[in-house]
Amino acid sequence: MDAPRVVLGVIGADCHSVGNKILDAFFSEAGFHVVNLGVMVSQDEFLDAAVESDAGAILVSSLYGHGLIDCEGLRQKAVERGLDRILLYAGGNLVVGKTAFEEVERKFKAMGFDRVFPPQVDLAAVAELLRKDLRSRKN
Amino acid sequence: MADRLLLSVDIGSTYTKAGLFLADGEDLRLVGRAARPTTVDDLGLGFAEVRSAALAGRPGVRPEDVPVYWSSSARGGLKIAAVGLTPDLTLSVARMAAASAGGKVVRAFSYELADDDLAGLRAVDPDIILFTGGTDGGNTRVILHNAARLAEAALPAVILYAGNGKVRDRVVDILRGRDVVTAANVMPEVNVIDIEPARDVIRRVFLERIVDGKGLSSVVAATGGGPLPTPLAVFELVRTIGERVPDWEDFALIDMGGATTDFYSHTEAFHGGDSVLLRGLREPKLKRTVEGDLGLRISAEALVRSEAAFLEARLAADGSDLDDLRRYAADVSRATEFLPAADRGRRLDATLAAACVRAASLRHAGVLQRVFTPQGGFQVQRGKDLRRVARLVGSGGYLSGAADSALLLEACAPGADDPDTRHLVPEAPACYADAEYLIPLVGNLATDFPAAAARAAVAGLRPLSSRAN
């Protein structure tokens, strides 16, 4: 079986590249085929890459606090582009200030994200969730 | 003696031109030339005439003993329809592959092919359908759908499949009974371009299959070999000059004609640097774009429509207006051989030419945008950076006769945009004219004699100085 394909990138005008490289290395090592778009990625670039590569998930990072506005509308756009069943994950410093993570998670899920992660997270557990979610989406 | 003579012939849409070269040690020397009107009904007649004329001064030489290298852009050149998945990824790469193979993209399609699209394909009657989409292992749904649509459409064009490699066999199977060839995926991974394999197949298809339909088989019979599409001969010449001639690594060539303006560049697309970021496709070092709406005759009306804003401003500075130019464009688009004798025509031709050079350069070049982020100011580059282009060559009837560098330097126009956007056009290149019309005749020899052809081409250029008065 081919490695499951995921699209990875840092959304918006965000140039934090270190975490992006760590995620790329980690998920590749964990057996995923990572299409890494790097930093400052627009919504359309995420979606074009997912369409061309037939990816099962888009993993969106945001570290500069503008995640909410950058991610708004991504789900609707994905549906419009024919990516009805694609998984959307978001993680990082998604919102400026001291908003409780539960509140951030609620907002991102309301925007159509399947899973939302805080700044500190066990990547092995994320990979496990991703595998499970991808399997259940297939059926 | 005859074995050291080489004949190069280019069958253009209006003229068939020949150059007789002497392979003299490491050098190629032009020792004779001829031109005759292209004989559209039987291209072989014009070819035979021009060959005799080029060899006329050499009584001891039998024409059939002189090897012939030739190219053709007659009968519309090489017409390619590009099919991709998303407009900014595979379709954009497919366009690049088609242009780099010497073709002209006559129609382009993305996503699922609809009934209208198939009707459009039939209407433009392409020689090749370059069918791409999906990374390797990527999208299959749209690709297989489009394969089925192309199968049912039963068009006469050769279908070149260069999409998702994982479904290549299934695509070929669906298209069984059609004229199908395949090449490696033009975009095997997102943002990774691999157009050389598709280019090679397009070249082979042109040689082996399309030549007949273009009425070139009699020339193949007379020469024992097939032609290159003319722009491909130029493309290979640009490559060999860029690779082999000292100080010519970063250069560009503009070939402006009655129907199209072609822009070729040989320079690294992206130079990096602190806080400069490349977004989108990393373009190849050697790139050709062809603009079907930028031309001095057949395309003059399209040009006035596309570049109205620039033309209007330029004409106003001369105390003239767009209506007069529109009338002129309508006249010359129907009189494709027209050469102005009067002042008005010369002046309007110069204005049209400036618009062609400027727009072709702006479209070929990428942009750099200043972006303010919480981490400070960044610059985002999209497309190709031409700022290091140190030399700029003008070819084609009009540019070959340029008196000074003013017209070519229109390629350095900054473009009219917001102050945070900068077009990455050449900055201050030295300018040259292909005054001897050696391009593409030398280009035909570039594949077999790369070093000698590169030197001969550069030696034949005339340096242009700034405005003469």
Strand content of chain A: 15-25%
- Tell me, briefly, the overall form of chain B: globular
- So how many helices of chain A? 6
Largest sheet of chain A: 5 strands, parallel
The number of distinct β-strands of chain B equals 20
**What percent strand of chain B?**
15-25%
Question: Would you identify the regions of chain B where 5 or more consecutive residues have pLDDT less than 50?
Answer: none
The oligomeric state is heterodimer
Radius of gyration of chain A: 14 Å
Overall structural domain count of chain A: 1
**How many β-strands of chain A, per DSSP?**
5
CATH homologous superfamily designation of chain A: Cobalamin-binding domain
How would you classify the helix and strand content of chain B by structural class?
A: alpha/beta
Strand line-up of the largest beta sheet of chain B: 14-12-11-17-19-20
Helical fraction of chain B equals 25-40%
The CATH level-2 architecture of chain A is identified as: 3-Layer(aba) Sandwich
Strand order of the largest sheet of chain A: 2-1-3-4-5
